Predict the structure.
Amino acid sequence: MQPNPCSLARSMAEDIHALEQALSFVQHEESHDLALALSCFHNIQALPQAEIEQVLEQDTMEVLLTAFSWRLLIPAPGPRASMAWEEAEAVMHPQTVWKQPPVISHLVQRACTTGCWQPERTLPLTSSTLAHNLEAMTDFIECTRQYAPGYVLSANLLRAALHEAGIHPDLEKVIIDFKAAGVLSPRLSSLSDAARHRSPLYEINPSVFILSPYR
């Protein structure tokens, strides 16, 4: 039996509404269009901008810039660029390919069901070395926010945030997993700061290190 089109449409509308509620950390007037844009990536890792524009039926520049500023979507790197977010160029062109970090995919899927943005429940999915301990994950997020003004922190401070939350994993493994999941990205332009901290610097994903009031 084929799914009822009305039921599918109603279910999709409910998912969008729940996701819009979960995106309460962005400006209210942008949350609906942003929810629509993020919903385009259901089970899809990357999409050209033209396909997102078809769904929104409008110019997507402001929506995509907001998505990029929160690292909800990342422009695919050019042929000479690294994977670092700071080198990504948000070129507004129909052929620009946008990617959704895996951690954001997890957050969006959960938000469509719960109406809540729950990184404390999602982070353990990004690394097998992290336990599914909500209290520890919540403490880790809060500690990381304190250590990362401007959303930049060193590997040493990342270790400190983990330890303060009572988490003692293999730091190198966590960093590898976090980079693959889009939780953090190497900071390449701050070599002098890295030397001062005596450890590599990373940009953390701002949309991951927030705590929803609806959790």
In short: Confidence is low (pLDDT under 50) at residues 1-9. The two ends are 37 Å apart (CA to CA). The longest strand covers residues 201-204.
